[in-house]
Amino acid sequence: MKGNIVWKVKYSFALCIAAFIAAIPLHAAPFRLLAIGDSLTEEYRFETPFSAPDSNPSVANAKNWVELLHAHRPLDFTMGSYATSILNYLDYRNAGYEYNYGVPSFKAERWDQLLLSNSFNPLDINTKSELRSDLSSVNAVLIFLGGNDLSLSNTDAQHDVIRQSIVRIRSFVRANAPEGLPIIIATVPDIGATPDEKLSDPIMAAAARQRVATLNANIIALDALPDTHIARIDTLTDRLYDQQPFHINGTLFTYQPNSQNPPLHLFCKDGFHPGSATHALIANEILKAINGFAANPIALLTNREILADILGQNPEQPLIDYLGGVSDDGDNLPGLIEYLLGTDPAKPDSGLTFSANGTASYTPSAAALRFADLSVLQSTTLKNDWIPVPLQNIQLLPNGTVNLIPSAPKLFYKFAATPKP
Question: Beta strand pairing status for 100-102 and 140-144?
């Protein structure tokens, strides 16, 4: 009997240990990505001619998408072990992550030749051999090329040569990778969106942009191929063209380069390579492609994370600048709502105007809406019956004014504001 009791106690203790272990949250293994690319993909640490400030030319102060994802998603993303010494690899890679085949100045055409020809160049042979070997160790392959091949004077036929090279590189990966390994193809970044390559003639610029858009439309169509996914880098270069001024949550960025590579500049000092902020947005496009098939999606870099953790800025700065240290003006509007309405934070103002038919109106600040979202709640009792104003009772005018059409004889309104993530 005593022996049985001892056994039961040990058994229960073992069950407790098993239950404790089961309760410990287990993190999935990091997603392993191999990239075939150029200077946008090689770590900026090794590209100090443009990634370092003139005041300290040997130490990069800009980071690219590879470095940002390793720094800010270390439990979720990896490109393998890291080699810090130049010439650590016996191929075209300088150093850096083992699955990072980003080679500065390489065109899609050059990668095409390297992978599909029978070159006797030792660097060609070693690069091809190492890449083929690494394909069995990763969860996906990214092909991020074409920017070096682009010329804004290219014809559509010349641009299609880039697509054909990318297709052949994909075929090499498909032939040498495990069956079903996902292949991500990045659309080609439009170099016309960079200060260095920007065309001054608007007609020529528009025509060149359309030709690049046609190339990217043909690349996007490659998602019909088996196990193929697209990273929409073109959406970012479109944003660089069209968002004037460029901002992240209302924090404004400078388009023209600066010799010191300041954090709020979109490009490095050469005016061609993206700065840290732009690379954070590139990283998100790559993560979106990964999340389209990965079993464990990786959280995108939020705007506030980009501003605070990557660039060292205060995400609240637009609001701080607006308020300028003004204290309460007595209208019971919080400072954030004052900012969104564009009302004077030093003067009492409800933010709403009323017409004779009971319609309430307000005109939010378009610039402030970059920082936060503004909505209106309504109530008939001023108690716990606050609900958003129904969409059918909201009228948006061309000048940005919002009309709130009453849905009851007696209504109360209040603003609600939510800072953007």
Answer: unpaired
The residue behind tokens 């590209």 is 47
Q: Quick one: tokens of 255?
A: 């388009």
**Minimal CA–CA distance to 36: which of 154, 168, 150?**
168
**What is the C-alpha to C-alpha distance for residues 207 and 46, in angstroms, rounded to an integer?**
35
CB atoms inside a 10 Å sphere around CB 408 = 10
User: Distance between CA atoms of 421 and 418, rounded to whole angstroms?
Assistant: 9
CB 417, CB 322: distance < 8 Å: no
Q: In whole angstroms, what is the distance from residue 153 CA to residue 94 CA? A: 32
Burial class (CB in 10 A: 0-12, 13-18, 19+), 203: exposed
Task: Tell me how many degrees the CA angle 139-141-146 measures, rounded to the nearest 5.
Answer: 165
Domains of the chain by start residue, with CATH:
31-310 (3.40.50.1110), 318-419 (2.60.40)
Whole-model pTM?
A: 0.90
Which of the four pLDDT bands, split at 50, 70 and 90, describes residue 344? confident
**β-bridge mates for residue 283, sequence order:** none
**DSSP element (H, E) containing 24:** none
